[in-house]
Design goal:
This protein has three helices and five strands, in the order E-H-H-E-E-H-E-E. It is an alpha+beta fold. The protein binds iron/sulfur cluster.
Length: 76
């Protein structure tokens, strides 16, 4: 696994944001669980193209994408 994606717990519980994240990610790394909360689809993580659409879709600091191979974290 080369990529780690984190959603702040407060943001993950935001059902509107969960829906938005599922829509914007081109490789389906986010999905809404039974309660509409954002969850990470682990098996898709390495498909991440580092487009940052998820970071832009969420409030500042709520979504972080880390390149585990370099330690660099993308956020805003
Ligand atoms: S950076 Fe792009 S591909 Fe990676 S998780 Fe975010 S939206 Fe998906």
């Amino acid at each position: 696994m080369f990529i780690q994606v984190e959603v702040d717990p407060a943001a993950a519980g935001d059902t509107a944001l969960a829906k938005k994240l599922a829509e914007v990610c081109p490789v389906n790394i986010f999905e809404a669980d039974g309660e509409g909360k954002a969850v990470i689809v682990e098996e898709n993580l390495d498909e991440c193209v580092l487009c940052e659409l998820c970071i832009e879709a969420a409030p500042p600091g709520q979504v972080r994408v880390t390149k585990l191979y370099s330690g660099e974290t993308l956020s805003r």
